Amino acid sequence: MEEEVGLELAMEEDTSKWFPRSNSAREVRDRLVAFALDKGVDLQYNQRITRLQRESSSGMWYCESEGGEQYRAPRVVVAMGGKSFPAVGTDGKGYQLAQELGHTIRPVYPALTPLTGPHPGGNQLAGVSLNVGVTAEAGPSGQLRTDAHRTGFLFTHRGYSGPSILDLSHHAVIDIEGLREAADGTRTTAITVNWCDMSEESWRGLFLSALAKGGSATRLVSNMLGERMPHRLALALCEEAGVAHQRMADLTKDKREQLIGLLTQYRLPYTGHQGYKKAEVTGGGVSLEEVKWETLESGIEANRGLFFCGEVLDCFGRIGGFNFYWAWVTGRLAGMSAASARLSSPSS
Predict the structure, then answer these.
(1) What are the pLDDT digits (tens) for 193-221?
(2) How many domains, the chain?
(3) Per the database record, which ranges form the RsdA/BaiN/AoA(So)-like Rossmann fold-like domain (predicted)?
(4) In this structure, are residues 146 and 171 in contact, taking their beta carbons and an 8 Å threshold?
């Protein structure tokens, strides 16, 4: 029979997600720790496991820490996280241990991390935020398209962030790190931004409508755009198109089309990323093909009794709580599977 830790939850109406009523991550931690201690769990702090090996004769697992402490257990769950947020001790050691035990490790990289690069028009737009549409294109001809599920965009001092960018930034990281290449050896990933999430035809209609109004024809193009986006961004886009000081009436068709292209299909000029320090999750990891999905136990015969969960596995999701969900669900499954398996003989 399952027991509860006594954490009171409340649903967030906008997202239909459940959170602690206290809105405190510390309460979640404290209640889980208290529950574990009440059940007799022995918590060993500041122990970094550096060696993991299964004794073939007994089927027991042998663990050794950096300080020389040794542990033996019939079952082991590897829940060591990835490499993101290194300040809390995540250094990718789980990948190394799994690889030493014969598992395939898919290329590891920082995912859901801010990107670096110049702002439109060469301006400094740090702090400017708006809702946009972001699309990532990959593949030899850009035929693989993925749209961001979130719309928030933020200019930072170093480049770009916000939910929309984090949602798709792993495509840029894969490009930058050379983890996906076309047949001819070139990387073809691109990220484009639709600054107001409006179609080209909608913009053309707005320009023509403005010209049809006598007074609007004398307005600066940047001022017209500034009614639909932050004015600093509007001016920067106009500067990039070379129409920063032009009036609506003086805007040629070619310049108008160039500007509409920048408004709807702005190719984000990313030059780098902010790495694991800012990444919300790590991409890559232990190949899922080598893990039993029913229990998350290693599928390698010599590793019976070894389980994996969370970020150490080659799986991550978009932002919005999905990676936490993956951690909780796989942690629960791996833990319950290991506890159940422990009831049988070591060799079974």
Answers:
(1) 999 999 999 999 988 887 777 667 788 99
(2) 2
(3) 6-336
(4) yes
The reported pTM is 0.87
Tokens 């909780």 belong to residue: 328
Quote the CA–CA distance of 149 and 123 in Å, as a whole number: 27
Using the CB atoms, write b or e for 203-216: b if 16+ within 10 Å.
beebbeebeeeeeb
Q: For residue 16, tell me if it sits in a domain.
A: no
Q: Which two tokens stand for residue 68?
A: 């020389």
* Long-range Cβ contact pairs of 240-245 (< 8 A, separation 24 or more): 240/120, 240/121, 240/122, 244/121, 245/220
User: Are 62 and 73 in contact, with CB atoms under 8 Å apart?
Assistant: no
Are the CB atoms for 30 and 43 separated by under 8 Å?
A: no
pLDDT tens column, 325-348: 999 999 999 999 999 985 444 444
What 8-state DSSP symbol labels residue 119? P
**In this structure, what CATH number is given to the domain that contains residue 296?**
3.50.50.60
